[in-house]
Amino acid sequence: MKKVLAYDFGASSGRAMLVTLKDGKVNMEEIHRFSNDPVTVNGRMYWDVLRLFFEIKSGITKAVNMGGFDAVSIDTWGVDFGLMDKNGNLLANPFHYRDNRTDNIPEKVFKDYISKEELYKRAGLQLIHFNTIYQLMYLKYYEPETLARAEKMLMMPDLFAYMLTGEIHEEASIASTSNLLNPVTKDWDFELIDKLGLERRIFAPMLKPGSEYGKFSDAICEELGCDKVPVIAVAGHDTASAVAATPSISDDFVYISCGTWSLFGIESKTPILTDDAMNADFTNEGGFEDTTRFLKNIMGLWLIQESRRQWKREGDDVGFDVLEKEALAAKPFKCFINVDDKSFEASGNLPKRVCEYCEKTGQYVPKNRGEIMRCIYESLALKYKHTFNVLSELSNRKYNRINVLGGGIKDTLLCKLTANACGVEVLAGPAEATAMGNATVALYSLGELKDFKQMRQAVINSTDIKTYLPENTEELEKAYKKYLEVTGL
């Protein structure tokens, strides 16, 4: 029975899971958990990448002491990267995607190099100012000496794999978040790279999910007392791993990978690169087995997480369960926000910004925590409804259910509101979708699972799915009309 040591990095924490397959079920044991804290220096926000690599090595040591493992696999958030010099050394800590240095870079790129319309036709990504393309173009505009010293760019899972193996490769699903990948060929778009004046040399050779980066370096084996096992290039983007673990054998489903971000979309055999898709700000990202994740990035549980952090800063360490109860106690549908409004992107006093948004739009202004939370919950659910409707139009398909994946399934109020707002059944689970998708691709690579269908069946066998049926749909429909007026969607 093969064991996979799967690392799942989120925007605020990471963990190492020992994973096996037994009797058609995926068994996962968390052996190491750690925080992932951004560090701000001189007004710039970075990832503490060396600390994170220390945590990877700590997980390996624990796994060795528990009997060892047969492979390592890693998924992370998207878009961010490290730059390596000609000697293979990291030039600097990778920037955090919430750093504001790229705020106005898309407009400069569209003016100087390529139109927004042409870029979408080539790469098919939602316009988000912190995508890899704009981070690189910031360097080209303002720090060209850094780019001149860079020999290779490695996105986060590829960077960690390099640190373990010494091998330089780029995995396709994480590369698809860069805005520099051809969504049809699943390889770098070197014509686009040339057009932008970026150097081809920094873009590493591409690997498909399920391939192998290489084996542990001799130095890692000596330091940690471990065997020379392979590091598997799974679907390295955390959303791609989560979608790989959707508990569905058919392809007639919509998913919400629900965490700090809500990734709302479908699995498509081909990218959708129409003008309507561009205008609706949908994205085409890569998945396992050459699938396309056609989706919308929505500001998700970040709104709740950051609100809680603010109340904690104010001296009230209130739990998520208490916040949900307070939201339930508040009167429904009194005010709404556009959860993707730019004012909600940055960390800080988010509850205050919610109140300011409501005041600015002439609505009732929340008076307490419960009312603020109710506003956020209902606004998220109604944004899901809007996205669900647009997604059906863009894909020219009707969907009868939504699979909610990830930690957000623990939020029963949001799941109920989503079913009510969208008017379809919501199937919640698995909570550990990202780690499970990560590990099942690695188990497939090791020969433990034979194909995508068997992988998803293993997920179904291993998951308790909770079903939410729509209720009070008329009340939600009335609220939706008001929500559209307020947000201008």
Describe the protein:
This protein has 489 residues and is of the alpha/beta class. 40% of the residues lie in helices and 20% in strands. The protein has 19 helices and 21 strands. Helix 13 crosses helix 15, helix 15 (369-395) packs across helix 16 and helix 17 (433-445) packs across helix 18 (452-461). The protein starts with a strand and ends with a helix.
Layout: helices, strands, pairs:
Elements: E1 4-9, E2 13-22, E3 25-35, E4 39-41, E5 44-46, H1 49-65, E6 71-75, E7 81-84, H2 105-112, H3 116-123, H4 132-142, H5 144-149, E8 152-155, H6 156-165, E9 170-171, H7 172-175, E10 181-182, E11 187-188, H8 190-195, E12 206-207, E13 211-215, H9 218-224, E14 230-233, H10 238-244, E15 254-258, E16 261-268, H11 275-279, E17 283-286, E18 292-299, H12 302-313, H13 320-329, H14 350-360, H15 369-395, E19 401-405, H16 412-422, E20 425-428, H17 433-445, H18 452-461, E21 466-468, H19 473-487
Parallel strand pairs: 1-6, 6-14, 9-12, 15-19, 19-20
Antiparallel strand pairs: 1-2, 2-3, 4-5, 7-8, 10-11, 13-14, 15-16, 16-18, 17-18, 20-21
> Percent of residues in beta strands?
15-25%
> If strands are numbered along the chain, what order do they take across the biggest sheet?
17-18-16-15-19-20-21
Molecular shape: globular
Counting DSSP H or I runs of 4 or more residues, the number of helices is 19
Report the uncertain regions: none
The overall pLDDT average reads 96
Brief descriptors of the model:
six-stranded mixed sheet, 19 helices, 40% helix, 489 residues
In short:
By secondary structure, the protein is of the alpha/beta class.
